[in-house]
Specification:
Elements (H helix, E strand, L loop, with lengths): L4 E2 L9 H28 L2 H27 L4 H24 L9 H6 L8 H26 L1 E2 L1 H21 L9 H19 L7
Antiparallel strand pairs: 1-2
């Protein structure tokens, strides 16, 4: 992931072939990361499992949040919508691979089924919603940066989201928010409002004229 994207040439790139190509690439990447996460949670334990799964989770969040915006180079709602479209279509690619392949090769442990009440379909609607929301907000961050400074910095935007998510997760645990605990799951859930906060912060400041 490039730390800075210059505003040169085209932006708001939303041609259909590019959206389709981006969705296929992102969907394949999501499938690989989910496979790695599931295998790590199945075969590892203790601090090793936590570290490996944390690395995979952060890499996945970075890819889903920022890659679609890097591909569409958003400056207006057109590029932002294009990034969300890539995210939405990518979830379709992942879910197709999940149903036809990942669920049939012993990828998931019993913990996945227990969380879903014994159903392996429980996370599909969540994946569709989150997989669209993250790139939509990530593209907003990049567009805000571009309009304000003439360039975007996906690394800065993602670090802001990580910091916000960490802060919100800590606060949730300290105030005994229902279900919150010192766990990777709490951080993962906190990333959603953390990204919303980072998006709002990215819109603040003097805009480039």
């Amino acid at each position: 992931m490039s730390s800075t994207a210059e505003l040169n040439g085209e932006y708001d790139l939303t041609r259909v072939p590019m959206i389709v190509q981006g969705a296929i690439k992102l969907g394949l990447l999501e499938s690989i990361l989910v496979l790695l996460f599931a295998l790590a949670s199945r075969f590892l334990g203790g601090i090793v499992e936590l570290i490996v799964c944390a690395i995979i989770l952060i890499a996945g969040l970075a890819a889903v949040t920022m890659l679609p915006g890097l591909w569409t180079r958003p400056r207006t709602i057109e590029g932002i919508a294009g990034a969300a479209g890539i995210g939405l279509a990518a979830t379709g690619v992942f879910l197709l691979l999940d149903v036809t392949l990942l669920q049939n090769i012993g990828t998931y442990s019993n913990r996945w089924y227990q969380i879903g009440g014994g159903s392996n379909w429980w996370y599909h609607p969540v994946w569709w919603m989150v997989g669209t929301l993250l790139p939509w907000l990530g593209a907003w961050v990049l567009a805000n940066q571009t309009v304000r400074a003439g360039r975007s910095s996906p690394l800065t935007g993602f670090l802001m989201a990580l910091a916000s998510a960490t802060l919100l997760a800590v606060v949730a645990v300290l105030i005994d928010f229902p279900g919150a605990r010192w766990s990777l799951a709490t951080f993962g859930v906190a990333f959603l409002p953390g990204l919303v906060l980072a998006t709002a912060l990215s819109a603040m400041g003097k805009r480039r004229t």
